[in-house]
Design brief:
- The structure holds 3 protein chains of 3 kinds.
- Chain A is mainly alpha-helical.
- Helix content of chain A is 85%, strand content 0%.
- Chain A has a domain at 37-68.
- Chain A contains 2 helices and no strands.
- Chain B is globular, with a radius of gyration of 18 Å.
- Chain B starts with a helix and ends with a helix.
- In chain C, 80% of the residues lie in helices and 0% in strands.
- The radius of gyration of chain C is 21 Å and the shape is globular.
- The chains are: A mainly alpha, B mainly alpha, C mainly alpha.
- The A-C interface holds A 1-3, 9, 12-15, 18-19, 21-23, 25-26, 29-30, 32-34, 36-38, 40-41, 44-45, 47-49, 51-52 and C 41-46, 51-53, 55-56, 59-60, 63, 98-99, 102, 105-106, 109-110, 113-114, 116-117, 215, 219, 222-223, 225-226, 229-230, 233, 238-239, 241-243, 245-246.
Chain lengths: 68, 222, 250
Amino acid sequence: MAFDSFADFFAMGGYGFYVWLSYGLTFLALGILIVNSITKKNKILKNVEQRLAREQRIKKAKDMEGTL
Amino acid sequence: MFNVFFQVVNKELKGAFRSQSDILNPVWFFIIVVTLFPLGIGTDPALLARIAPGVIWVAALLAALLSFERLFKDDFIDGSLEQLMLMPHSLAWLVSAKVFAHWLLTGLPILFVSPLLAIFLAMDINTYSALFLTLLIGTPILSLLGAIGVALTVGLRKGGILLSLIMLPLSIPILIFSTLAIDAAAYGQSYLGLLALLGAMLVGAITLAPFAIAASLRVSVS
Amino acid sequence: MWKWLHPYAKPEKSYQLAGKLLPWFVVATVITFVVGLVWGLLFAPADYQQGDSFRIIYIHVPAAMMAMAAYSTMAIAAFIALVWQIRLAEMNIAAIAPVGAVFTFIALVTGAAWGKPMWGAWWVWDARLTSELILLFVYLGIIALYNAFSDKVLAGRAASILTLVGVINLPIIHYSVVWWNTLHQGATLMKFDKPSMAPEMLWPLIIMIIGFATFLGALSLLRFRNEILARESHRPWVSALVTEKLEGGK
């Protein structure tokens, strides 16, 4: 262990601000990237889902036309 | 083969002289941008001479950007770009003719007005000759690099701003080497080595860029 | 070998393969990040010159290295895409570019946060930082160009051309910036031309480099799958995938 206490660890030998700033921004950026990538996939799947539902509705409506 | 080259150049020049403002506007822009700097920074001749190479080169870059729009845009709209692609000659060769014509219309006028700007910015004759040489070698590279960017963006509706985003980072080496050469001249050092590097970049651009331009045009016109 | 490889030129197969590989990369990333960060932040000794501020190295250097690696991968993919007309390679470019851009951004930000205590300024026109900044511009240009095309097939081809133009230009940019820097600044303020690192400092760094590499792999796979889905969204296999998922959810 390079640090004696928790407070020591956070202080980073006086460089705490810079160290935690860079670690914080890094994980923020990586987190945004991950969230963006995952939501993008859900969005694409949702679009396909909506299209399929629409196609089914259209098909249904056409079938109804035949019966009426 | 050379016949076609000159025919294309000839056609481009004729078309450009019909609408002269297309040639004059970028040059005006160039002069105005350079004029803004003494107004914004102050008129101390030593300071002006110090910043002159950077100012002139950045202004030349921006002026070149403005002029690129017309390189392929009109031809793209009226369909003559497709005709060009159907010609029984290599597209890379034909576009190099177009780029050459474009340089004659935009790069050369900048060279012609550069003495005026050298006077504005208090450059001495030795520095000016370095500026002239770097412009002479550097502006064709700009035209070739910019042509790649235009060819990629010509089919897009908002291609103009995208063109600058693509092209400006790629033109940084030209800016750096040119201003280094002019700085060296200002301090009375030899700048031949830097000119040779610029020349090497020009040769590289002449050999490689036409193929990139042709490939990009094929993407845009399809 | 080609017989084995050929089915993966089909988007559906690649989608499944990427899905199979993804968990491994995620697990590897989590393990290396935890081990590397705990070791680097808690157990590695403080640098005798820079104190604890050197611990930024465990994200700065890996991010910078992988930003370069991402671009090289894109360049190879662009070459494959243009020579053999393989659409999946184009999708690869679109998938990697945002990850590379984020890594470049991280390298810049951590470089600045490290520079402040070491050089006394947030930003120094140091050759490495400057060329990293230009790399970020190039990445953003490629992403902007890709997004500007509504036809993603054309977008992929345009992006691969620009990637190749960039890869010829990047070494020139790098050396011009190095030269510009040395001529303008004389001896730089670089304190850490580190001759050799102590092994107890170096090991966490190597682990973090591997961690960033697997992170790059995982995110690229994830986004690669997105690209395939987006482009193939009208194909029956995607519809089947969605209905399957819907029924599974019920």
